[in-house]
């Protein structure tokens, strides 16, 4: 596999995952990030910057979906809805 094919595969996989990641981050309120101790703009910036490389978006998307920041922000929103 050549480097060009590797990069193309990264974009084909990364762009849809990047769009999903950006949408998921954008739909959560900034207040939930602030209360959970994470920074919304940092995550959004990483996801947008990752779109430049393709594979970077894939990495940011996986870290976002499996990491603590997303789950902490969602937990804060759930606690606010129950209160």
What tags apply to this protein structure?
83 residues; mainly alpha; 5 helices; elongated
Structural features, described:
There is one protein chain. By secondary structure, the protein is mainly alpha-helical. It is built from five helices and no strands. The model has no long low-confidence stretch (mean pLDDT 86). It starts with a helix and ends with a helix.
| Average pLDDT, all residues | 86
Radius of gyration in whole Å, from Cα? 15 Å
Proportion in β-strands: under 5%
Largest sheet entry: none
Number of strands: 0
Alpha carbon gap, first and last residue: 55 Å
Structural class: mainly alpha
Summary?
The chain has 83 residues and is an all-alpha fold. It is 84% helix and 0% strand.
Any chance you could write out the topology, listing elements then pairs?
Elements: H1 3-27, H2 30-36, H3 40-50, H4 55-66, H5 68-82
